[in-house]
């Protein structure tokens, strides 16, 4: 999950610059290409300019390559380059993990299940959580690099989510199909909502639902919101 400013073309890595050229040469655009691979309309824009996700998943690469008429290898980040970007082995400290475990960082941004504010420049890691790799792989069905912990603030999602709960989100899942609980940026703040796609809507629309009956549900054009990630796990103090 990236909280940075939009990158200029000169700051992009070779894969992202190549994708921009392929899209331009195919006489399409990022929005249409995102929808063609069954992602939300802003998916490729976020991938290119906000590094979210950091790399394209294999199924997205294959679908995008087929749509653009190119080899999927052109959209693949080299593993060696990714490894070089992070120190190995990790030095001793709160963010190192023993063998068989992975670190899931907790972002110092409060996901307001009601109303909130988001400092787009804020990237600070507040805490780190350790999870067994089999749990991440089989229970969460995710990759460690795609997981973040965020604290809920508000009561609009009660009784499922309460203020102070920690929720784990998978930032690679930013399309409300199937419906589920997502953390979104709606232009005013970070919200935890149940999101459902409105069938046959044009332009695509989504319904944002609160589980607390005191809060109303509402519709938004899908392009107006940024889905940060799908909630896959919750931690609660009894």
In short:
This protein is α+β, with helices and mostly antiparallel strands and 238 residues long. 21% of the residues lie in helices and 27% in strands. The protein has 6 helices and 9 strands.
Written account of the structure:
With 238 residues, the protein is α+β, with helices and mostly antiparallel strands. Helix content is 21%, strand content 27%. It is built from 6 helices and 9 strands. It has a 9-stranded mixed β-sheet with strand order 2-1-3-4-9-5-6-7-8. Strand 6 and strand 7 form a beta hairpin.
* Helix content percent band: 10-25%
Q: How does the major sheet shape up?
A: 9 strands, mixed
Silhouette: globular
DSSP summary, beta strand count: 9
Number of helices: 6
């Amino acid at each position: 999950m990236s909280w940075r400013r939009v990158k200029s073309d000169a700051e992009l890595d070779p894969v992202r610059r190549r994708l921009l050229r392929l899209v331009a040469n195919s006489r399409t655009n990022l929005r249409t290409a995102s929808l063609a691979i069954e992602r939300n309309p802003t998916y490729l824009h976020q991938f290119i300019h906000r590094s979210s996700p950091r790399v394209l998943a294999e199924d997205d690469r294959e679908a995008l390559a087929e749509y653009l008429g190119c080899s999927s290898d052109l959209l693949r980040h080299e593993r060696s380059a990714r490894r070089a970007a992070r120190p190995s082995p990790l030095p001793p400290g709160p963010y190192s993990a023993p063998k068989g475990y992975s670190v899931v960082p907790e972002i110092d941004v409060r996901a307001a299940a009601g109303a909130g504010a988001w400092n787009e420049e804020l990237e600070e890691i507040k805490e780190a959580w350790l999870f067994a790799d089999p749990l991440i792989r089989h229970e969460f069905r995710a990759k460690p690099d795609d997981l973040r912990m965020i604290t809920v603030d508000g009561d609009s999602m009660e009784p499922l989510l309460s203020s102070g709960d920690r929720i784990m989100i998978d930032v690679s899942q930013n399309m409300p199909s199937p419906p589920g609980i997502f953390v979104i940026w709606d232009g005013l703040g970070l919200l935890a909502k149940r999101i459902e796609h409105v069938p046959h809507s044009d332009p695509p629309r989504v319904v944002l639902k609160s589980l607390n009956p005191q809060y109303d549900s509402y519709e938004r054009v899908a392009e107006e919101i940024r889905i940060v990630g799908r909630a896959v796990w919750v931690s609660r103090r009894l």
